[in-house]
Amino acid sequence: MDPAATQPPSRPADPASLPGLEAGTRVRIVEVGARDGLQIEREILPPASKIALIRGLADAGLRCIEATSFVSPRWVPQLADAEEVLRAVADLGERGVELPVLVPNERGLERALAAGARSIEVFTSATESFAMRNWNRDLAGVLAMAAPVAAAARADGLPVRGYLSMCWGDPWEGPTEPARVAGIAAELLAMGCDSVSLGDTIGVATAGGVHRLLGAVTDAGIGLEQVGLHFHDTYGQAVSNVQAGLLAGVRTFDSSAGGMGGCPYAESATGNLATEDLVWFLEGVGIDTGVDLPALARVSAEMAGQLGRPAPSAVARALAPHGSTVR
Amino acid sequence: MDPAATQPPSRPADPASLPGLEAGTRVRIVEVGARDGLQIEREILPPASKIALIRGLADAGLRCIEATSFVSPRWVPQLADAEEVLRAVADLGERGVELPVLVPNERGLERALAAGARSIEVFTSATESFAMRNWNRDLAGVLAMAAPVAAAARADGLPVRGYLSMCWGDPWEGPTEPARVAGIAAELLAMGCDSVSLGDTIGVATAGGVHRLLGAVTDAGIGLEQVGLHFHDTYGQAVSNVQAGLLAGVRTFDSSAGGMGGCPYAESATGNLATEDLVWFLEGVGIDTGVDLPALARVSAEMAGQLGRPAPSAVARALAPHGSTVR
């Protein structure tokens, strides 16, 4: 058999739109591998690795790359180099790449602004249990911590995004009430966020639940242009959930190169939706993402090599060079 | 942290239907692991392993289990024990489990009927290239081989299913023309098949392409109640493609326990859609499958152990016992 013929295609060969999807639909991908993906890694990577990762992602065509987090290094030692990393990629910002950074509190915002941050994220929870376990305070306390950050960044004219974790369920409380998620999302927007990212932190969402939550969000008066979706692939549903979100009208999706990252609270959970798998889906339904998939798969393979394990992305595996050690 | 709380849920906790999906929708799952999944394995499993697999699948609630293939043992040595396996699970047939078997030609049909087969499958291709490589004859020749099998089985009152491979693309010809697939599907129905299974053998379908092909099938006068879909997860799109098929009106989906199987013509391709991931999706959108997911995941883990590698199913991994060697 001709080996060349058995090489899998490197992008969907024959795109076809979905019923109900407008021609010319644009989607924004928020690449979260360098922050959300790396932060759970125990082995501390050198700043040069993170800088190379962010540059590689930008070179592969990604235009919104979460760069780092200005949390206390005591909480997340992996990202203690936030200033160094952000400064080293500042030129990408000048080339039109948005580089949001996560900021937990006012001290973090000072550090972020001093390091040149031009896009801010705050992080909250849809459940009391996760709030207590992640921040050791109740949800009101978490929101009170985020509010001055959002207000100050907004006053500085910076875009501010509010992350909401555990939007479909959490490991302690089970399913999350959609109206509750919508209410907290509305609070985030009221305190100064421009947009919210609804996170399925443990990967329990399925397509019907995506429609249901987005219905509750719309009922709360939130426009879907302010909403992003952040799925985990724990149960293999992430791409299907993106389809549901896209059909419901969402145009922003978070993903992580190679599927890096996971949920520290669900031991066997696999990671974030892989950017490669998301791009494959979007290109397949005729949405031009501007992402060079083989280039992105190389970036993921390089990082997987550094982390010592294969990237969980199906597309990254399919596109890996034959004989690669990270297949 | 309470370890019990971090155990992932074993089924979707909070089902929600999809817009446009009728209440009470039923779906038929055709479990293909014991035939389609195993046939590419080089190491020959003993009949007892296959019998235990089929029994385990039935005990987990699957009601249509592809049991074996009556191809020549020279072509597929793995399934040389077809008679023994089928006879050993015949009691399941009496308990309402359908046990289709693949039959390539009239000699195979004689063997299948002598062994007690009550449900027959014939296998064809949507492309000339795959026909030539898999059967060393052109597509007309492949259809001519299947036709007397379908007619004879139909005359005996047995259900006959026609498999069509490479329906969205093949490694040599690229994308497959939807009208061509629909035309061959119509030929299969005309020759005596009750239903057809449209296979994405190399996993290149995306959701829009599923709608497009089903549109062509409908345009050819084929009712979707006669159509099943058979996806591979090479690019992580299989569950999303099921969603598209379900929304378009298809009610039969093929899948393989643990995602066993693959395509021998695409070296880095991952396997069939995992039954666990399919069931998770269906239960998530409120469709009762009757499948006991933890029981199914145990069956897949047992087989993965015998095959010496982890099951590619996300759900199977998530549900694997902690410390399991096949995670």
TrEMBL record, chains A, B:
Q: Name one GO molecular function term.
A: hydroxymethylglutaryl-CoA lyase activity
Does this entry carry the keyword Metal-binding?
yes
The reply on keyword Metal-binding is yes
Q: Name one GO biological process term.
A: L-leucine catabolic process
Q: What is its EC number?
A: 4.1.3.4
Residue segments, region Disordered: 1-20
Q: Name one Pfam family in it.
A: HMGL-like
Q: Start and end of every Pyruvate carboxyltransferase domain?
A: 27-297
Q: Which UniProt keywords apply?
A: Lyase, Metal-binding
PANTHER family in the record:
HYDROXYMETHYLGLUTARYL-COA LYASE
Q: Which NCBIfam families match?
A: PRK05692.1
What is the protein name for this chain? Hydroxymethylglutaryl-CoA lyase
- Recorded source organism is Naumannella cuiyingiana
